[in-house]
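Protocol step 4 of 6: structure prediction from sequence.
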Amino acid sequence: MLKGLGARLLRLVRGPDQDLPSVETLREVRRLELRTRGLVDSLFSGEYSSVFLGRGLEFSHVRRYQVGDDVRAIDWKVTARRGTPFVRQFVEERDLLVVLLVDVSGSGRFGPGERSAGEVAAEIAAALAFAAARNNDRICLLLVSDRVELFVAPGSGRRHVVRLLADLISHQPSGRGTDLSTGLDRLSRTLQGRGTVFVISDFIQSSPDSPFRETLMRLARAHDLVAIRLVTSATLELPDVGWVAMTDPETGRWVTLNTARRKVREHYRHSVLRAQADTAALLGEVGAELVDVNTAGDALAALSAFFRMRRGTPR
């Protein structure tokens, strides 16, 4: 019989016609909840709505102009009809859609002497999901490799977040490569209304011919888009260890490199930095924000710094 924490979480996520996650998975979800609680609390000690910018405005009514009202809010048609100034009033939409698009390709499952990108991605996703649940916002999850792996429809509340994170942690990808355009296209075609979309990935595309730019621009036009780029030490540097046979975790291809040659290491580093700069430029071009998270560091601290910066950004 299940006891303690595992049993409580199991009761929380139990639903009709669903495969139940393992107790170990649920304990990992609980660990993530406790690990991210400080960041979630800090979001609500500030202004949550100034961080999650996807919330829109709905027209409510018109009223007579009062001294100090913003003249840009004047409804000129009503003013002309009534013969006195009237202003339009708006209310904030009651809930927000927070979308987590997580890259689960092969490169995310490896990390030299440090946490893998996949583990860091789960931690970041947990912080964002629990923050949204605290505000009764809706959260959905899309897992992507070189195909759409899993889509968890929008829902709200802690029960939904626990189930969503359990799916993220336990999912075994069928694809190895990375083609984020498949996920971006799925979201741009299916999301209703405006939301905040977090794309959590190393942004190393193994499908160079994919329509990444086009799908990114289409999604950014309709939603508030934040790219959280996971950077590992292995991504940036080749160690000086002589001849090395290496395999790409996404394509499975083997290549032999002489890492003792400085030119080989420098060429590798410059190629990576150039690719990272190109990605950053593209994200800036479409109006998305970029957060770089080093997997060897404190991911939640990097996320917190981004949120503090965003609270100071005019809406």
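Step 5 (inspection) to follow. The chain has a mean pLDDT of 82.
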